[in-house]
Amino acid sequence: MWAEKAEKAVVEHTSEVYPALFVAEMSVATIYGLPRIDPTFGGMLLSDKKPRRRKI
To answer: What does pLDDT average to in each consecutive run of 10 residues of the chain (56 residues)?
Structure first.
């Protein structure tokens, strides 16, 4: 298991993929082909913060 690596990758790849369309959490793993099983709750929580900051 590479939970730490997967969490970091999910947070780093959280982004706007189309104007006003942000991907976060497990959708990031799907779109970018990242490991899907290993990211833990901490990575998901951090991934959610990025789009919220951009929106405000």
So the answer is: 77 88 84 74 67 60
